[in-house]
Amino acid sequence: LLLGDSTGNFDIIKDLRMPRVFIAILVGANLAVAGVLLQSIIRNPLADPYITGISSGAGLVTVFLMVFMPQLTTLRPILGFIGGVLACIIVYIMSYKNGLSPIRIVLAGAAANALLGGLSSMIAISAGLGAANIQKWLMGSLATVNWSHVYLLVGYTIVGLIAACLLSKVCNVLALGNKNAKSLGFNVQIYMIIVSAVAVFLASISTAIAGMISFVGLVVPHICRLMIGSNHYYLIPCSAILGAILVLFADTMGRIVMSPYEIPVGIVTCIFGAPFFLILLRKSDLK
């Protein structure tokens, strides 16, 4: 390839493989950091963009755009962010009763995922011949990404990850609990809204490009905590790196395990992430 003897292979790598690699890295980093932020403010080990319904909200808006307004490709991340915010608000309202309970967040998120996922499928069916491709995208697929998606996502990702790193000290304080944070002079509600907004932003822009990839934001933060501890100054960049590696690995496995057929990356992360989720569910104090 370097000598130019296989022009066709070089074009495949440049135009098909490389954009996919970059999108996998960006999406993995975004979802993992979003999981870290959500777990810090909710203080819930089960919090993750998919479980809290954020991905489903962003996915619903994106599917609507794909079917009815396909020309608005460049607006997908921003409009997906709006969908993620609305879904997050709905889940928080549904689960709030004298505070946020981990089990209520899980149940409310499951209900939101079912509802929003059903609506997304209904809209996808109306796409006719394109319904199968949209359903595959909803499972979390990088099969159709190209350089335009990379250029679109990289700017948003840089902004979101920088904002997350700047909030590392805030996350450390919020993780101590509301009373301790208030005693240190923190306006807890304002900072929780800011951190939530960054988490929703990172998750939504990724969903708008790659579909709903679950469990990355759940699994990666816990692995990083075992490796380096709970200091968000190190936890956020570590999660970004490991999340990027995980999604890239999952996408590669999805392409080669059943070649020439392809397993969407979201299905691969489900296969690995679901058992981890069940282990956390059994070990967590949900009372």
Give me some keywords for this one:
single chain; 287 residues; mainly alpha; ABC transporter involved in vitamin B12 uptake, BtuC; 75% helix
Just give the CATH class: Mainly Alpha
- What count of structural domains? 1
Oligomer: single chain
CATH topology: ABC transporter involved in vitamin B12 uptake, BtuC
| H/E element sequence | HHHHHHHHHHHH
Largest sheet: none
Radius of gyration: 19 Å
CATH architectural arrangement: Orthogonal Bundle
**Which consecutive residue ranges, at least 5 long each, have pLDDT under 50?**
none
CATH homologous group name: ABC transporter involved in vitamin B12 uptake, BtuC
Overall shape:
globular
Number of extended strands: 0
Helix content: over 70%
Strand content: under 5%
Average residue pLDDT: 86
Number of helices: 12
Distance between the termini: 59 Å
Class from helix and strand fractions: mainly alpha
Explain how this protein is built.
The chain is built from twelve helices and no strands. α4 runs antiparallel to α5. The longest helix is centred in the N-terminal third of the chain and has 36 residues. The model has no long low-confidence stretch (mean pLDDT 86).
